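Sorry to interrupt, but I need a hand with the structure work. Leave the record below and I will have a look:
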Amino acid sequence: MNIDGVDGAALEWLRDIGRAPYLPKQHRAIWLQVYDRIGDACLSGPLIPGSRLPGEFDLAELFSVSRLTMRKALSKLQQEGQLQARKGVGIFVRRSRTSYTVDDDLRFSQSLEANADSIETRTMELTRVPADKQSAAWLAIDEGTEIIRLSRLRIVDGAPIYLAAKDFPADKFENFEAAFAPAQSVTDVYRAHGIDHHMRGETRVNGKFANRTEAEALQVTHRTPLLQVISVNLSPTGTPIEYNRGRWVFSAVELVFGARHASAVSRSADFGS
């Protein structure tokens, strides 16, 4: 069997582990044994980060199981972040974790560990809406006050890893859209409105399960574990100017706090700009 886009060595490895006899299902369900084998191949076999797997039908044939059995195994591997299904492209072994340094002085691309060939930003939403209770509390404004909501997706080497929703008080950024449009940069918006430097205020890190909207954007299955970072940026006078909810694919990132490199001291920008 030859499958376009699948490495020959990886295919042979999958064929070998698929041929191995299964334990009786009363000891461990067959789909979990398939999950074990593919998971081990991702960690120690030729299924290196970024490599493509055969499709569900071909994998089921290689492992001599039904498509339903294979689908259950693949779904669990995707929920745990070992595999990633890209619509219309295929199933891939997720790339190694990317380190993200949380620092006021670094742009998003500068904060990422330098192991990515490409970093793409996709604006999902840019609207003006009334502030809900949560946003109003973080921005220290009245509920219902107009805010600017910006949602963006970060894609590293073709794989979505970060989805952010940012809220800004509209009265402090009258020309937000015009300042943002040329380079799609929040830093440019800040500077266009007289904010050359900002401070990071409170930051909270917690876990959550992906809802359907988040799962679709990040190309993971529903209820995949995500790492959520909630933070607020402050102006030099201490006024809240940005409320950010960032959702990372849990298995794709390592957050680094308090690491400041000498080469980064002269850089300036905001988290996620």
Summary: The mean pLDDT is 84. The longest strand covers residues 119-130.
